[in-house]
Design a protein that fits this description.
Number of strands of chain A: 3
Number of strands of chain B: 3
Strand content of chain B: 15-25%
Number of domains of chain B: 1
Helix content of chain B: 40-55%
Shape of chain B: globular
Number of helices of chain B: 4
CATH topology of chain B: Ribosomal Protein L30, Chain: A
CATH class of chain B: Alpha Beta
Radius of gyration of chain A: 17 Å
Helix content of chain A: 55-70%
Order of helices and strands of chain B: HEHHEHE
Number of helices of chain A: 5
Strand order of the largest sheet of chain B: 2-1-3
Oligomer: heterodimer
Strand content of chain A: 5-15%
Order of helices and strands of chain A: EEHHHEHH
CATH superfamily of chain B: Ribosomal protein L7/L12, C-terminal domain/Adaptor protein ClpS
CATH architecture of chain B: 2-Layer Sandwich
Structural class of chain A: mainly alpha
Strand order of the largest sheet of chain A: 1-2-3
Structural class of chain B: alpha+beta
Largest sheet of chain B: 3 strands, antiparallel
Radius of gyration of chain B: 13 Å
């Protein structure tokens, strides 16, 4: 990947095809997770990921949390699904993916990307059990590849923030 | 890394909110996932904080475990919390006890 660079009103970067496959897979996974939100077993790993995407608003584990969810979760899920779709759509048609794929993001697309990259990282973190600062240093060697992807998605996000406004990073 | 907020400091913060007649607050909590630069971006772009103010509150989240980012009515705070969840930040609202 080449870091994001601003050119006029758009922010662009080039990704290797393998990197595109990874981002598209991750965004699609988050999208599926959210789409299945209403029928998850509360003790499943997917449910733990969902708790990170839609955290409790009051933390009382009771009526207030339930009511907040009832009124907000549908809209939040819809917007998160849309952000994941916008991330995928930025890469264009799969048939056109050659050695490198160039993306150009306008302000709205950049905003969707930032949010979707966050949702992707929250989902990976839930799977790896990253709950506190420093937990990523304690990951099993079996999960090393996933951890590298997690770090790389953070790099993509940081690069986007830097191009968007040098002051953000 | 997350540390508990110093009680005196918390009391001072809350006294200030109460004097303003704003019994509800929005808190953003430290999490190990979100980048410091992203949290700062969210605080600037959503709340309209200046860069130094956004950085100050972001560092407060990072070092003290949480920061108050808004005060007001319950409905306003619910709207902010929903927006923060849209950004993927861990936010809650609570009533300030008199």
């Amino acid at each position: 990947m080449t870091p994001f660079v601003r050119r006029g009103d758009v922010i662009g970067a080039s990704f290797e095809r393998a990197e595109v496959e990874i981002l598209v897979t991750l965004a699609t996974d988050v999208r599926s997770l959210l789409a299945d939100a209403h029928r998850l077993d509360p003790d499943s790993p997917s449910s733990r990921a969902l708790d990170r995407l839609l955290p409790a608003a009051y933390g009382d584990g009771a009526e207030n949390d339930a009511e907040f969810r009832r009124f907000t979760s549908e809209g939040l899920v819809e917007r998160k699904v849309r952000n994941a779709e916008l991330l995928v759509e930025a890469f264009g048609e799969r048939d056109d993916w050659a050695g490198t794929v160039h993306v150009n993001l306008d302000a709205a697309a950049a905003s969707a990307w930032l949010r979707s990259l966050t949702d992707i990282r929250l989902t990976i973190a839930a799977g790896l059990g990253i709950e506190h600062d420093g937990d990523e240093l304690l990951i099993d060697t079996d999960d090393r590849f996933v951890l590298e992807v997690y770090g790389w998605v953070g790099f993509v996000q940081e690069s986007l923030l830097r191009a968007l406004d040098p002051d953000f990073s | 890394m997350a540390q508990t907020l110093d009680q005196t400091e918390l009391d001072a913060q809350l006294d200030e909110q109460l004097q303003l007649g704003s019994p509800w607050i929005t808190l953003v909590w430290n999490d190990p996932v979100n980048l410091m630069s992203y949290v700062s971006y969210v605080f600037r772009s959503y709340f309209g904080f200046s860069k130094p103010e956004a950085e100050r509150r972001m560092m407060q989240v990072h070092t003290e475990g949480r920061a108050v980012v808004a005060t007001g009515t319950r409905e306003e705070m619910e709207r902010h919390v929903e927006a923060m969840h849209g950004f993927g930040l861990w936010a809650t609202l609570q009533k300030v006890d008199a």
